[in-house]
Design a protein that fits this description.
Helix 7 links the parallel strand 7 and strand 8. The strands form 6 sheets. A 6-stranded mixed beta sheet has the order 2-18-9-1-8-7, sandwiched between helices. It has a 4-stranded antiparallel beta sheet with strand order 12-13-15-14. A two-stranded antiparallel sheet has the order 3-4. The chain is built from 13 helices and 18 strands. About 35% of the residues lie in helices and about 20% in strands. The chain binds zinc ion.
């Protein structure tokens, strides 16, 4: 009998969110919380697709420091600084500028400029330059999509660029018609709503019900000929309710370091002496959270060679966010905390018993390969 695998990636489907699944996803009776990775969705999605950690595939946050002698592709965006801030920080302006820039630079990956100050673009880089579902490799590591294609299997990956409801509609049409050996679908609506509303029970439940209905339709489409279908619905992390905002501006001015203000972490580059001073300043300011030096980052399997994401981080405690940061302002929900925090835990639901050894998001890719008969 033909074996097929359906993987549905649901952004922000975490350990806390799966508890509110109720009767959504009725066919997927096996549930488990999985360990996540340090960083944001770009890193966790890469881990789901490759089965490797950020230390291997190099993805963790949207922006890195451009490597020495690199091509500095973001530098032209400095021109945004010619506009008044009230204009260039507008979501719509940023969105259009990002789209135009991606086209000009020939990037097919996820490009979002958020609220990065224009004067910082010259030293920044985007690791995700290619369409993550069609790229052969992520940081030199193949995805299970690539491996399945190489093995001669038919593969469908939903176009993440297409608006969500249209993406589901298109995907289900393709799955009914082509019945690929492997399908990878993608939903971001839960993440978007939980950022906006926090973990409001009604929002979580309604959104999971919506997604569940789509997943059931996708299963029917892919298995209507009686093929042996395995389904996984997997998240990348959960979501914490925001309980505290930290204004980083005064401290950032005093630090005078090369740094990037992400929503939950301040990433810094500097000499040992500079970092020591920075740590003292932050401790004096009484920010809630912890300092992560290179050893602490290595322990969390973050990329540390050449420090693309920073020589040291200050990571906020769960529930705190920087406002304003280079990626946004006030929101009710956030992720990107320490890997031991509950909101860093992802969830997995399946129609088959989940093996005991599948304990973190990196363990799913080998399982998908096994299901397709292409793994060890
Ligand atoms: Zn998010």
């Amino acid at each position: 009998m033909t074996s097929r695998v359906l993987v549905v990636f649901v952004d922000a489907f975490g350990a806390r969110q799966i508890e509110r699944l109720g009767t959504s996803l009725p066919s997927l009776t096996h549930h488990k919380a999985l360990g996540g990775v340090l960083g944001y969705s770009s890193g966790a999605l890469a881990t789901v697709l490759t089965g490797k950690h950020p230390e291997d595939h190099g993805r963790m946050c949207l922006f890195t420091r451009a490597p020495e002698g690199g091509d500095r592709i973001l530098k032209p965006l400095r021109v945004l600084g010619l506009l008044p801030r009230i204009i260039h920080e507008r979501g719509r302006v940023r969105h259009l500028a990002g789209k135009a820039f991606a086209r000009m630079a020939g990037l097919t990956g996820y490009v979002s400029l958020h609220r990065v100050p224009p004067e910082e673009f010259h030293w920044l880089d985007l690791p995700e330059r290619d369409d993550i579902f069609n790229a052969r490799e992520l940081g030199g590591v193949p995805t299970f999509l690539t491996q399945a294609r190489d093995a001669g299997l038919s593969v469908y990956a939903a176009p993440w660029q297409v608006e969500e409801s249209r993406r589901w509609k298109n995907s289900i049409e393709v799955l009914s018609k082509d019945k690929p050996d492997l399908a990878f679908l993608y939903a971001t609506v839960l993440d978007a709503r939980l950022h906006e509303y926090g973990n409001r029970p009604d929002v979580v439940e309604e959104t999971l019900a919506e997604i569940g209905a789509h997943v059931e339709r996708a299963r029917d489409a892919m298995g209507s000929d009686g093929a042996d279908l395995t389904t996984y619905v997997v998240g990348d992390h959960g979501m914490a309710d925001v309980s505290r905002e930290v204004d980083p501006r005064r401290v950032v001015r005093r630090l005078g370091l090369r740094l990037f203000v992400d929503s939950t972490m301040l990433r810094m580059w500097g000499s040992g002496e500079e970092l020591k001073r920075a740590r003292r300043e932050i401790e004096l300011a009484g920010w809630p959270g912890k300092w992560l030096d290179s050893a602490a980052l290595t322990e969390r399997r973050a990329p540390v060679a050449d420090a693309p994401y920073g020589d040291a981080f200050f990571l906020l405690e769960e529930g705190a966010i920087f406002v304003p940061s280079y990626v946004g302002g006030s929101v009710r929900g956030m992720h990107g905390y320490d890997i031991s925090d509950f909101s860093a835990r992802a969830a997995l639901a399946s129609d088959r018993p989940i093996p005991e050894g599948l304990v973190e998001i990196a363990d799913l890719a080998p399982e998908v390969r096994r299901g397709l008969g292409i793994g060890p």
